[in-house]
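// run 5 | inverse folding | seed 20
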């Protein structure tokens, strides 16, 4: 009884899975790195604020009221790259940086008047409110003079502007990655759509080509029947001969129809004798060699292989296409084609190889050999290898590749089909 095909266990996940995982890892790395940098910047801001608090504590606020020392305070915080406000215990701002208010815009006389009267100008009120907002982000640092009790004032500080910008970098980069993936996916879909259109157009032409040979033959046999009947040469033996040939052509038509019917459907793979399928296809091609008008030797080398799940009609089509390409390339007087089957135990795969000693291919041709529409022949639609690749990769979950080719030295095409895993407890050797 036929069993549906099963995905082999030893085949790798799709490249889309790896692409998604790579994007996730990259995004996490960006977020972790950005948070690390932000934490270091915040630690640096707190360290500088602590140094500032110690400096102010040593100088004391009483001394800081002197214009000369106030200028020193401002020089100390001049190079600070984050918001910082120095206030006394009453909340009166004494110095500030990076809060959107120029320290030079408020004269020292205004600060002195505010300290004596307690009345703050609108600018000083804004500075005090800013200090309260900073306190909600970072706890203020107390200004305490060593050896003296009590708090002299506070240093209010915020997050460096660079840290705030860095918080958005991972999200911006992630959006850029997603945008690139979107454009890449759209481009890939466009290429695939174009390739599919080319494939279906070539498929229609290939169908006409495949059906043309047996149809022409049938028309010839029907003409021969009429002619033999008119001449009175139609005896039973002659009828049987013509009927046998018609049966062969009808069988060929049925085989072509079955092959193309499987292209748009999901074929059912069954355990079968792959060696016999390959050998029968080689025999079919060998019988057609006299029509080429030249001698071509086809050698067969079949090693013992385990049962493989495959679709007989479709895989015979693959072998037929590989042999036809080899025959087209075998343009030497000593043309030779070698067909072999090997069991790759380490890979748990059966490998078919078709090698010819023909004109070979360039590196550029090898890269496009399985693309629909590409051909090096004067006549042809470049569909044979494209369809073979589709049958092997998509339907059989196998591999097809050109393992060796060079101009004037021939070409070797390899097809690997995965073998089912051995039964539980069975030897894997």
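// decoded
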């Amino acid at each position: 009884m036929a069993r549906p095909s099963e995905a082999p266990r030893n085949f790798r996940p799709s490249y889309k899975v790896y692409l998604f995982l790579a994007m996730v890892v990259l995004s996490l790395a960006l977020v972790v790195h950005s948070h690390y940098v932000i934490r270091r910047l915040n630690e640096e801001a707190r360290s500088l604020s602590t140094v500032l608090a110690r400096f102010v504590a040593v100088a004391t606020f009483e001394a800081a009221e002197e214009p000369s020392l106030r200028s020193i305070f401002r020089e100390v915080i001049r190079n600070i790259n984050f918001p910082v406000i120095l206030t006394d215990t009453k909340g009166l701002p004494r110095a500030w940086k990076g809060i959107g208010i120029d320290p030079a815009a408020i004269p020292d006389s205004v600060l002195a008047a505010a300290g004596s009267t307690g009345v703050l100008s609108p600018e000083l009120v804004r500075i005090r409110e800013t200090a309260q907002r900073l306190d909600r982000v970072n706890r203020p640092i107390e200004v305490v003079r060593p050896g003296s009790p009590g708090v002299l004032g506070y240093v209010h500080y915020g997050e460096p502007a660079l840290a705030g910008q860095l918080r958005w970098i991972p999200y911006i980069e992630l959006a850029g990655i997603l945008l690139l993936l979107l454009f890449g996916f759209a481009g890939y879909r466009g290429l695939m759509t174009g390739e599919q259109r080319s494939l279906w157009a070539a498929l229609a032409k290939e169908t006409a080509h495949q059906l043309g040979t047996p149809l022409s033959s049938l028309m010839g046999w029907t003409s021969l029947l009429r002619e033999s009947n008119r001449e009175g040469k139609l005896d039973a033996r002659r009828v049987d001969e013509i009927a046998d040939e018609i049966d062969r052509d009808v069988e060929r038509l049925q085989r072509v129809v079955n092959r193309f019917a499987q292209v748009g459907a999901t074929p059912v793979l069954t355990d079968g004798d792959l060696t016999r399928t390959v050998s029968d296809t080689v025999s079919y091609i060998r019988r057609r060699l006299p029509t080429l008008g030249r001698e071509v030797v086809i050698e067969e080398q079949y090693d013992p292989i385990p049962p493989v799940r495959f679709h007989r009609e479709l895989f015979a089509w693959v072998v037929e296409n590989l042999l036809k390409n080899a025959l087209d390339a075998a343009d030497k007087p000593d043309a030779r084609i070698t067909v072999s089957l090997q069991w790759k135990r380490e890979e748990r795969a059966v490998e078919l190889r078709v090698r010819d000693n023909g004109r070979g291919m360039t590196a550029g041709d090898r890269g496009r050999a399985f693309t629909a529409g590409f051909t090096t022949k004067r006549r042809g639609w470049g569909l044979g290898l494209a369809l073979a690749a589709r049958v092997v990769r998509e339907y059989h979950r196998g591999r097809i590749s050109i393992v060796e080719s060079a101009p004037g030295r021939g070409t070797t095409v390899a097809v690997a089909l995965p073998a089912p895993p051995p039964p539980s407890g069975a030897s894997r050797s």
